[in-house]
Fold:
Amino acid sequence: MDLESFSNTPVGKLVPISGTDPRTGNNYSHKAFVPSPLPEETPRLSPATWEVVTDAALALGRLDQAGRQIPNPGLLRRPSIRREAVSTSALEGTYAALPEVLEADIAEEESESPAIQEVLNYVRVAEIALEAVPERPISIAMLKELQAILVRGTPGDTADAGRIREVLVMIGPEGSPVEEARYVPPPPGDQLVAGFEDWQRWLGENQMQPVVAVALGHYQFEALHPFNDGNGRLGRLLMVLHLMQMEVVREGLLTISPWLEQRRREYQDHLLRVSQTGDFEPWVEFVATALKARADAATAQIERLLSFQESMQELIRNQPLRGVASQIAYDLIGRPLVTPTSAARIYDVSYQAANAAIARLVDAGVLEEITGRTYGRIFAAREVLGIIEI
Structure:
């Protein structure tokens, strides 16, 4: 870590660390960064930055309005969570294609690759969290529970899973020595615990403009890095949860990571520069730009998915489609991949009834078989896949 770049920062301090690196067996003597508590007053921002913040707030308001008009928001939340899961995992170096994740969702056999398992762990975490907030305020206890699920069955599933870490962590090239880390968060112990507890208090009590609050809250969580693994994925989920807790958006339909994934290095550099300079303004502007872009994309996506659903309703009337075929068609905006087995389970019908219903939708041009197999076949609504991959 470039210690000189942190020498005059007003938002934290360097503390000495030493020990033996368990990865290399080499002794180290270096320093880690301990962020100061977040400010109670809004940082000074220029009129230009406030304009970006205001645009983001308006975009979030439009998204919230669109979300509240959906008869079954839980159905639309499914593809949103999975799209976010793919990008937020990619930001951490775990790559899986969205169709693969959707296929794993309906797989008839447990054959998940390590990458798919990590992505699906995030899906489970997000589903739990989005159902809990805002009825259950964001808390350390909640995050411990979510982190344990997030790392289950992965290399991060260590003795520290579900607990505030008791090991030193570093951000930088894998296997690099402590001295060459890009950033070293607080060492385990009282300073980390106190910082995390103060972050929890601040999250519930601050009165800042919501977009600004989300930016500062995310920075502080990442600066603390309170867990042994999963901090990035949890931190990005927390941005949406924080907006929901403040009742800015209410349906959990916002995905932020696809925008950040395309700007990965810029995202990382902004976080680091806040710690080095104490200047929140560039970071707030960056986050506000991300929120506006993704809120606008989500609103447009909702409109396209609802338009597709309307076309399915017209098809149901005109064909006509009855029973489980009509149910599958109506739900394709949230379940664009289907198999006879998954349809039988979801709609509580026989395999034969589900298979016949899918065949009718294939004949109607709604579904297409995508595996080319004669067994374990998967059927997709390609129009929906094109919409949700945005």
Summary: Residues 244 and 250 are 5 Å apart (CA to CA).
